[in-house]
Write a structure and sequence with these properties.
There is one protein chain. 4% of the residues lie in helices and 45% in strands. The protein is mainly β and 473 residues long. The strands form 12 sheets. Strands 30-31-34-35-36-37 form a 6-stranded antiparallel beta sheet. Strands 12, 13, 14, 15 and 16 form a 5-stranded antiparallel beta sheet that branches. The chain is elongated and about 70 Å long. The relative contact order is 0.10. It binds alpha-L-arabinofuranose. The site of alpha-L-arabinofuranose has 13 residues, from strand 4, strand 8, strand 12 and strand 17.
Length: 473
C-alpha cells in the first residue's frame, strides 16, 4: 500500500490499518513607535511570540525546512521582522529526532529556559510522521546566548502522534495542553490537558478537552491542534486550530470560567462556529496556529500564521509560505475575544473613537462613513502614506480598495481609491497629536478643517473643534 506521505493522509492511513499517530507613528507626544506590518515574519509558521519581563519580545516558529529550532528577539513587535535569528538546535543525523521539527514553544520553567517541539525520525517511508513531543533546555539565563541540549521526550499518555504543546499557569498551578491522536478515536488529533509535574511528565491523568467533530473542524482531516491560552475577564479562552493546513485551516475556541475546575472537560464550552477563518477580502488564507501576546502599550495581540494565496500545489504541509502575522485582539461586550478577520498585508490598522466616547468608532456601512457601532472589521482603518508628505489615507480593512475622501460638497465618505492627484488630495489627511492623547486628521484639501464626529456622522469640522479629536483604540 503506497501512502501519500502527507502527514494527514499517513495518519488517516494508519488509522485505517490499525489503532497504532514597518512607518513610525507617534503613540505619545514624545514616543515614536515603529508600526508593525503584516506579514511580520515571512515563512515562520506556528509562531509563538511573547513579551518577557526582560522587556524583549521573543519569537520562535516552524521553518520551511522543518530541520532546526530558531529564536529571535526584539524590543518592539515591529523589530521582530528584521531581528537576528539564532539557531538553537538542529535535528540529529539519525534516530527519532532526525526528521521533521515542528511548532516550537519557549517557556521559562522554574528558572530554566525550555523549548518544547514536535519531532519525528528521518529516512522517509511510513515512519516519517511518527511525531512525538520533546524539549531542549538552555544552560544559561539568556536563551539567545546559552547552550541548548536535549532534555528528553514528553511522557504522553499513549505512544501515538502528539504535537503542538503549550504550558500555562492558572491559580498557581502549571498545566500542559497538547494535541494527540488517541487510540480508538478516529481523528488526527484531539486536545488534552494535565497538570505538569516536571517539564516532561504529567502530575495527573490527562483530560480529553475536545475531539474534532464539527464540520469546520474536519475539513480535509479531523484536527484539533495548536492550543493557546488567554486569561481575561474572569475566563480562560483556549484557541485551537482545526481542519487541513490549507485555506480550510481556522481557529476554534474553548471557554472556561476562571473559577471552574479546568481539569473537568465539562467546564469548557466549545464555540459552535470557528472564531477566525480565511478572508477573501483581505487575502489571508488558512489563518491558524496562533499565540497571544501584548503590544508595547500592553494591548492584546493575536499572533498567527496565514498565506497570501488560496491555491496550493502539492501537500500544504510543504508549502513554505505560512507567514507570521499579528493584529490587535479586541473584546465583545460580553468580555469574550473578538477575533474579527485577518487584517491583511500592510501596516496594522487602528480603531478611532470620538474623544470621550469609547463606545463608538469611526466605521462604515458600504460607502457611508459614520461614527457608531459595527462589526469589528468595519471599524479597523489602515493608514497608508498619502499624496501630501506626512499625510495618510484611511482604508477600512474590509474594503481595502476604498478610502475616506472629502466630496466636492464637503461631505466625507468612502470612495474607490484612484491614483490621480485630485483624488489623492481629497483622500489625504495629516495625523497630528491633539490634547489628552487624542489625534486629529486635518484634511489636505481643507487645511483649516479636520475629520469630525457629529451626531453619528463623519463630517469635516473646524480644525481645533473638540469634535475633531479621536482616541486610538
Ligand atoms: O507546521 C507543522 C505542523 O503543522 C504543526 O505542528 C501543526 O500545528 C500544523 O498542522
Amino acid at each position: 500500500m503506497i501512502l501519500n506521505l502527507s502527514r494527514r493522509n499517513f495518519i488517516a492511513g494508519t488509522a485505517a490499518l490499525s489503532a497504532v499517530p514597518a512607518i513610525a507613528r507617534a503613540t505619545s507626544p514624545t514616543a515614536l513607535q515603529p508600526i508593525a506590518q503584516n506579514p511580520l515574519v515571512r515563512q515562520r509558521a506556528d509562531a509563538q511570540v511573547f513579551r518577557h519581563d526582560d522587556g524583549y519580545y521573543y519569537l520562535t516558529g516552524s521553518v520551511p525546512e522543518y530541520d532546526r529550532l530558531v529564536l529571535r528577539r526584539s524590543r518592539t513587535l515591529a523589530g521582530l521582522a528584521t531581528a537576528e535569528e539564532r539557531v538553537l538546535w538542529r535535528h540529529l543525523a539519525s534516530g527519532p529526532l532526525s526528521g521533521f521539527i515542528w511548532a516550537p514553544e519557549l517557556h521559562l520553567i522554574d528558572g530554566k529556559w525550555v523549548m518544547y517541539f514536535a519531532a519525528g525520525p528521518s529516512g522517509g517511508g511510513e515512519d516519517v510522521f511518527r511525531i512525538r513531543t520533546y524539549a531542549i533546555v538552555c544552560d544559561g539565563a539568556d536563551p539567545m546566548t546559552g547552550n541548548w541540549s536535549v532534555l528528553g521526550q514528553f511522557q504522553a499518555p499513549w505512544d501515538s502522534f502528539n504535537l503542538d504543546s503549550t504550558v500555562f499557569e492558572h491559580r498557581g498551578k502549571r498545566y500542559f495542553v497538547w494535541a494527540q491522536r488517541e487510540p480508538g478515536i478516529e481523528t488526527n488529533s484531539n486536545l488534552y490537558i494535565a497538570p505538569l509535574a516536571t517539564p516532561l511528565t504529567l502530575g495527573a491523568k490527562a483530560t480529553r478537552l475536545t475531539v474534532p467533530t464539527l464540520d469546520w473542524e474536519i475539513r480535509g482531516f479531523k484536527v484539533a491542534e495548536a492550543p493557546a491560552i488567554l486569561a481575561r475577564n474572569g475566563r480562560l479562552f483556549m484557541s485551537y486550530s482545526a481542519s487541513a493546513t490549507d485555506a480550510r485551516y481556522c481557529l476554534g475556541m474553548l471557554t472556561a470560567d476562571a473559577d471552574a475546575d479546568i481539569m473537568d472537560a465539562g467546564a469548557w464550552t466549545k464555540s459552535p462556529q470557528p472564531v477566525f477563518t480565511t478572508s477573501e477580502v483581505t487575502k489571508v488564507y488558512g489563518p491558524g496556529h496562533n499565540s497571544f501576546t501584548v503590544d508595547e502599550e500592553g494591548r492584546d495581540i493575536l499572533v498567527y500564521h496565514g498565506r497570501d494565496y488560496r491555491a496550493i500545489t502539492g501537500d500544504p504541509l510543504f508549502d513554505p509560505n505560512r507567514h507570521t502575522r499579528i493584529q490587535r485582539l479586541y473584546y465583545k461586550a460580553d468580555g469574550s475575544p473578538d477575533f474579527g478577520i485577518p487584517v491583511g498585508n500592510g501596516p496594522l490598522p487602528d480603531r478611532f473613537s470620538p474623544a470621550g466616547r469609547r463606545d463608538a468608532y469611526l466605521a462604515h456601512e458600504g460607502t457611508r462613513a459614520l461614527v457608531g457601532q459595527g462589526a469589528l472589521p468595519s471599524t479597523q482603518f489602515r493608514q497608508m502614506p498619502g499624496r501630501i508628505s506626512g499625510s495618510v489615507t484611511l482604508s477600512p480593512v474590509d474594503m481595502p480598495d476604498y478610502c475616506l475622501a472629502v466630496g466636492q460638497d464637503g461631505s466625507v465618505g468612502l470612495e474607490k481609491a484612484e491614483t490621480n492627484a485630485g483624488f489623492l488630495r481629497r483622500a489625504s489627511f495629516v495625523r497630528r497629536p491633539a490634547p489628552d492623547g487624542a489625534v486629529r486628521f486635518t484634511a489636505a484639501a481643507h487645511p483649516d478643517k479636520a475629520l469630525a464626529h457629529r451626531d453619528g456622522a463623519l463630517v469635516l469640522g473646524a480644525g481645533n473643534d473638540a469634535s475633531t479629536a479621536w482616541l486610538v483604540s
